[in-house]
Amino acid sequence: MKLFRKIRQKLVAENKFRNYLLYAIGEIVLVVIGILIALQINNWNQAKKDDNALKEYLVKIKSHTIEDLYKLDSLSRGRTKIADLCKKARISILDKTEDENLFLFMGSGFAFADLYFKPNTGGYEALKNSEYFGKINNTPLDSLLTRYHSLIDEIAASENSYNEYAKSQQAYLSTQFDRSLMLAYAFVPPDSLKIRATTQAEYFEEFAAYTSSAPYRNVISLVAWQFDTMIVLYGQLKDIGENVIEEIDAITND
């Protein structure tokens, strides 16, 4: 600054106004360039901070999606086994061979299990409520995440519909039958049952009446087709989830 001041003073003293004016303009240009460079560096630093913050959100979403995929695999296997049992039980009902397939009907009782897919949406919700969500607007990842969470809602509606129906049928059955006998007949070893006051025939009669009741068979019939629908939805969600992970890897360079 001292050097610039001396130059200005010399030009003024020598009455070289034109040269002074050109120098002043040049000095202003240098100051403007310096400001622009400083702003660019600041913008670059801020952009880098924003990218790092977005990456943290995406890494969390990826972690949660991986958790979801494990849950989907477990639920798919469980519902597939229950559906297969119920399909066989339905065929047995149509063939009137229930007495020959008591163990099959015992297994079909898992149709009343209260199963839900519980995804971890914390990372996605955090990103949506942050200032960084706009950075993925109108991108393939944005589209994938929208489809992913829309399908989660569809799965929740399907599961809730089935589970509520199964609960209502189970509540009714509980008013009509002594479920302690059902559970004993299904899970207590036969040798233990033989030494009880209740005869084996009584257990059998009660269990046969229970499994031949309309509410029990309604649930079995519903499982035979609705579980297939749920499993298809699980598969679709898994495919989209895998695409989400791949897209996040591409963005974060993992």
Quick description:
With 254 residues, the protein is mainly alpha-helical. It has helices at 2-13, 17-95, 102-108, 122-128, 140-176, 179-187, 190-194, 200-212, 214-252. It has 9 helices and no strands.
- Span from first to last CA? 49 Å
Largest sheet: none
Give the overall form.
rod-shaped
| Strand segment tally | 0
Low-pLDDT runs: none
Residue fraction in strands: under 5%
Number of helices: 9
Q: Give Rg in angstroms.
A: 35 Å
Structural class: mainly alpha
The overall pLDDT, averaged over residues, is: 83
Reading the helices and strands in chain order gives HHHHHHHHH
Question: Helix content range of the residues, please?
Answer: over 70%
InterPro entries: DUF6090
